[in-house]
Amino acid sequence: MLTLLTSMYLVTRSFYSQADPIRVVVTGAAGQIAYSLLYSIAKGDVFGKEQPIILVLLDIPPMLPVLDGVVMELQDCALPLLREVVPTDKVEVGFKDIDAAILVGSMPRKEGMERKDLLKANVAIFKTQGAALDKFAKKTVKVLVVGNPANTNCLVASKSAPSIPKENFSCLTRLDHNRASSQVALRCGVSSDKVKNVIIWGNHSSTQYPDVHHAKVTVHGSEAAVYDCVKDDAWLRGGFISTVQQRGAAVIKARKLSSAMSAAKAICDHMRDIWFGTKEGEFVSMGVFAGANSYGIPEDLIYSFPVQIKNQTWKVVDGLKVNDFSRAKMDATAAELVEERDTALDFLS
Question: Which residue, 37, 44, 65, 313, could crosslink 49 as a Cys pair with Cβ 3.0–4.6 Å?
Answer without folding.
Answer: 44
